[in-house]
């Protein structure tokens, strides 16, 4: 168990629990410092902050920004942002603005693959009118019986090369870092072990992230195996990046790990919170 959990989601993006419920669950599980990092949106932070005061834990205002880098989608976690910052707010709005058209295209692609009505179906699972994601499609396809679980759904339909995947252009890496910095926050590469890049590609990504002024990297993540904890601890040291930790919790029954379910950061990694 870790006192820190700096990556999780609520109903303001593709999580299953409200911000209030996420914070209360984190507190019950022994988390003392929690960052709520909804995809491309900060609208859940006010509710989360109220709950955090109520239960006596520290709420770190955050978000998870969608970025296009080379042919990949990369996620950048923002920590300790001023959510009222106009530059960040406009940046997040610009990232979100393409999501609905993308979702309609996903619906059309799935229809071509023999699954009609998926956009309307996915929409029934959307919990914030500001944000529709692939997760909502996955939940619909599971409940409609097309796939056995969300993992299976991503593997068969929603990832690059599969019938329901559509290409989309998000923010650039320097834009994301600049917006986060404009809001006084730290920029952290989320779950680096998830990207399908070669070791050379990872060095190029982290090099460009550092050149853009990026601050940290998730060393501990539910997307990483224990050998990857060590691997990304080394990347953190080599690139002079701060280390972060986060469960990426999305809700009961849908996540590998629960809130706070990660070990301490490996020795030799400077934690992101050392600068707080
Ligand atoms: P989007 O931002 O619409 O592209 O959706 C990305 C979200 O889909 C991620 O934040 C995860 O919650 C979810 N996701 C991506 N890949 C998988 C996977 N292989 N299994 C389950 N969920 C996934
Ligand atoms: Mn998600
Ligand atoms: Mn992510
Ligand atoms: Mn996430």
Radius of gyration: 18 Å
Sheet with most strands: strand arrangement: 1-2-3-4-5-6-7
Helix/strand order: EHEHEEHHHHHHEHEHE
Mean pLDDT: 97
How would you explain this protein's 3D organization?
39% of the residues lie in helices and 15% in strands. It has 276 residues and is an alpha/beta fold. Strands 1-2-3-4-5-6-7 form a seven-stranded mixed sheet. The two termini are 21 Å apart. The mean pLDDT is 97. Bound molecules: adenosine monophosphate and manganese (II) ion (3 copies). One manganese (II) ion is lined by residues 64, 75, 190-191. One manganese (II) ion binds at residues 64, 75, 190-191.
Summarize this, please?
With 276 residues, this protein is of the alpha/beta class. The chain contains ten helices and seven strands.
């Amino acid at each position: 168990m870790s006192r820190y959990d700096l990556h999780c989601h609520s109903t303001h993006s593709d999580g299953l629990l409200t911000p209030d419920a996420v914070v209360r669950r984190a507190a019950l599980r022994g988390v003392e410092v929690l960052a709520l990092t909804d995809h491309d949106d900060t609208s859940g932070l006010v509710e989360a902050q109220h709950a955090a005061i109520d239960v006596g834990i520290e709420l770190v205002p955050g978000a998870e920004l969608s970025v296009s880098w080379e042919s990949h989608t990369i996620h950048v976690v923002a920590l300790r942002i001023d959510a009222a910052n106009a530059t960040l707010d406009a940046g997040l709005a610009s990232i979100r603005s393409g999501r609905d058209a993308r979702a309609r295209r996903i619906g059309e692609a799935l229809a071509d693959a023999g699954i009609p009505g998926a956009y309307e179906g996915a929409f029934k699972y959307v919990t914030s009118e500001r944000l529709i994601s692939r997760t909502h499609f996955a939940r619909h396809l599971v409940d409609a019986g097309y796939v056995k679980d969300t993992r299976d759904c991503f593997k068969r339909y929603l990832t690059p090369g599969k019938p329901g995947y559509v290409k989309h252009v998000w923010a650039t890496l320097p834009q994301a870092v600049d917006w986060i910095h404009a809001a006084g926050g730290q920029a952290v590469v989320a779950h680096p072990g998830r990207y399908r890049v070669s070791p050379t590609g990872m060095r190029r990504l982290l090099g460009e992230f550092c050149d853009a002024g990026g601050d940290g990297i998730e060393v501990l993540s539910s997307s990483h195996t224990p050998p990857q904890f060590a691997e990304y601890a080394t990347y953190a040291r080599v690139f002079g990046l701060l280390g972060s930790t986060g469960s990426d919790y999305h809700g009961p029954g849908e996540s590998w790990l629960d809130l706070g379910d990660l070990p301490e950061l490996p020795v030799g990694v400077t934690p992101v919170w050392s600068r707080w």
